[in-house]
Design goal:
Layout: E1 6-17, E2 20-31, E3 35-39, H1 46-54, E4 61-66, E5 69-70, E6 81-84, H2 96-106, H3 111-124, H4 141-153, E7 159-163, H5 171-188, E8 191-196, H6 199-205, E9 208-213, E10 216-221, H7 223-228, H8 233-238, E11 243-249, E12 255-258, E13 261-264, E14 275-280, E15 286-287, E16 296-308, E17 311-318, E18 321-328, E19 340-345, E20 350-353
Parallel strand pairs: 3-8, 3-9, 6-7, 7-8
Antiparallel strand pairs: 1-2, 1-4, 4-5, 9-10, 11-12, 11-14, 12-13, 14-20, 15-19, 16-17, 16-19, 17-18
The structure holds adenosine-5'-triphosphate.
Length: 355
């Protein structure tokens, strides 16, 4: 990715609600034109952070800079930013055109200019011109999303903030809208800042992802970096179903575990590593014909099988521990439930993380 200048800089941004620290000393630079997504579990501070950036809440400490200018005290309606809400917050009894023009109307822009801008945005967002007079209640979910975006883009904001706009939408449409939003991001060239619970959603759309936990930004990186190099157990689990083995430093560069008991080959141990978790994603865990086929192996019992669309997931019990393996549907495992199986993985397909 080409290095782009920062549009938004957060310096030690903190929000206190009484004794509760909802957002805790966040430092972040968002590049111009970037699609940046904040993910985290419920209550981790995502909305509070976004509300401060949009000017709907003021920080208790720290600075927010927009293109180098401190905007802590600039009210929401005077910031060159716009928030797109979960509900999309369209006016139900108005037409597509009236919705898009709303912000321009309250800013006193003439009717001709408003209409020209609305039609331009409708073209950009692939809404047919005759939708201008159509009621938004007669639009599909996807069309309504485009109307909400057109309305947000109407007065040419520099940054668009999205507060879980897709969370209430059914799975299939949401998958379509995620891709559409990514296309719109590319077409408009605007900076998008998006919050969601769903890492899957973040992975599809974002240039970079910031993972929040307990008011802190615990990791920032590209989707690939976060997926392949989570920095701790929390981030690796947040990234989807994983196999985790609690390990300590063992002999000869290996790690040792109590459950399942054994010594395992691991990626190079970081200096000072004493204790942590070995992470193996389900797609890297394999059924073996013989122990020598992988650097690490375990004997277990196949005890469940689930069809996940294009993949099949297998659960294998090793003592008290349950391991998850995934294979493509075209390559199912030829075995039966309750059968003893040998499973394994190579060190390079595992990740060693802190606690
Ligand atoms: P969710 O995903 O459920 O929307 P979130 O990550 O967006 O959660 P926030 O809504 O930012 O989390 O809330 C962070 C913490 O701050 C929570 O403990 C919440 O209860 C608290 N909080 C948020 N707003 C206020 C407020 N106005 N007054 C007091 N506490 C608040």
């Amino acid at each position: 990715m080409v290095e782009r200048p920062s549009i938004l800089q957060l310096r030690q941004v903190t929000k206190q609600f009484g004794a509760l620290t909802a957002v805790d000393h966040i430092d972040l630079d968002v590049a111009e034109g970037e699609f940046f997504t904040i993910v985290g579990p419920s209550g981790s501070g995502k909305t509070t952070l976004l509300r401060m950036l949009a000017g709907m809440e003021s920080p208790s400490a720290g600075d927010i800079l927009l293109k180098g200018r401190r905007i802590n005290d600039v009210p929401a309606n005077q910031r060159p930013t716009c928030m797109v809400f979960q509900s999309l917050a369209l006016f139900p009894h108005r037409s597509v055109g009236q919705n898009i023009e709303f912000a321009l109307k309250i800013r006193g822009v003439s009717p001709e200019e408003r209409r020209a801008r609305a039609l331009f945005l409708m073209r950009q967002l692939r809404l047919p011109e005759d939708y201008y007079a159509k009621s938004v209640t007669k639009c599909s979910g996807g069309e309504r999303q485009r109307v909400a975006l057109a309305r947000a883009l109407a007065y040419d904001p520099q940054i668009l903030f999205f507060d879980e706009p897709l969370s209430a939408i059914d799975y299939k449409l949401r998958k379509t809208l995620e891709k559409e939003l990514k296309d719109i991001h590319r077409e408009t060239g605007k900076t998008f800042m998006y919050i969601t619970h769903s890492l899957e959603e973040a992975m599809v759309m974002s240039d970079r992802i910031g993972v929040m936990r307990g008011g802190r930004l615990v990791q920032v990186g590209t989707p690939h970096q976060i997926y392949t190099s989570p920095r701790d157990k929390f981030v690796s689990e947040f990234m989807g179903e994983v196999n985790l083995i609690e390990v300590r430093r063992g002999a000869n560069g290996r790690v040792s575990a109590a459950a399942p008991a054994g010594e395992f080959s691991a990626p190079v141990l970081p200096a000072g590593f004493e204790h942590g978790h070995l992470v193996v994603r389900p797609e890297f865990m394999r059924f073996l014909g013989a122990a020598g086929e992988a650097e690490n192996h375990l004997v277990g019992r196949l005890y469940n099988e689930y069809a996940l669309g294009s993949r099949i997931q297998y659960q294998v019990r090793v003592g008290e521990h349950v391991f998850v393996l995934e294979r493509l549907r075209q390559q199912p495992f030829a075995g039966h439930l309750d059968q003893e199986v040998l499973i394994g993985w190579d060190a390079r397909d595992s990740i060693l993380v802190g606690d």
